[in-house]
Design a protein that fits this description.
two-stranded antiparallel ribbon, globular, two-stranded antiparallel sheet, Four Helix Bundle (Hemerythrin (Met), subunit A), 199 residues, 8 helices, mainly alpha
């Protein structure tokens, strides 16, 4: 019978494949477009960045006793001109829509290192060690296995569905019309309250 640890491992590998495939053929314009001009919608760029940063923080900093993240080790914040610590949780919609991945290839290099780091952690970890209760801010205390399952698998799959919906609605119908309208991000005023960008 498959254990919870084995299930989480399998689903993380599936999630990583889904995210890699989803970002593979997107242009910078598509990544940074605001879906349907909606005042509370997140761009695909923000969603990809937010999830990768979350997994990096949880697997490295939280589950490995404050180990430096891949983001910090690789100097990606400076290279990409993005926040050194933040992962998007609590970010206002205006801030989220203004986020830019100025070098998509470099960002994809970062995600591959995060996925590899997670694989290495799982390969070297005794499942029993994940029974230890840890603190995941802002969610509170939980066993490590739940942190991995909830903040990585469940959370990541939610965003993967969000990404696929935006990709589907952004495709062109026969005749050249898109299913939804999109516009460049960063041209609107103050956005929604902080919780809106962190779903």
């Amino acid at each position: 019978m498959m254990t919870a640890f084995e299930f989480i491992h399998a689903e993380l590998k599936r999630l990583h494949g889904m995210l890699d495939k989803a970002i593979g053929d997107l242009t910078p314009a598509q990544l940074h477009a605001v879906p349907a001009n909606h005042p509370k919608a997140n761009t695909l760029a923000w969603i990809f960045w937010h999830y990768a940063r979350t997994e990096d923080n949880v697997v490295r900093f939280v589950l490995q006793n404050r180990r430096a993240t891949v983001w910090a080790e690789g100097g990606y914040a400076e290279k990409l001109g993005l926040p050194p610590v933040a992962q998007g949780t609590g970010m206002s919609t205006a801030e989220a829509q203004a986020l830019r991945l100025k070098d998509v290839a470099l960002f994809r290099d970062y995600t591959q290192k995060v996925w590899a780091s997670t694989e290495d952690f799982i390969a070297k970890t005794d499942p029993a060690a994940l029974d230890v209760v840890i603190t995941v801010k802002p969610l509170g205390d939980m066993p490590g296995i739940r942190a991995l399952g909830q903040t990585c698998v469940s959370h990541g799959m939610t965003h993967a569905g969000e990404i696929e919906l935006v990709r589907t609605l952004g495709r062109r119908r026969p005749g050249g019309r898109r299913l939804i309208a999109v516009r460049a991000a960063g041209r609107r005023g103050a956005g929604a309250p902080p919780s809106e960008a962190s779903r």
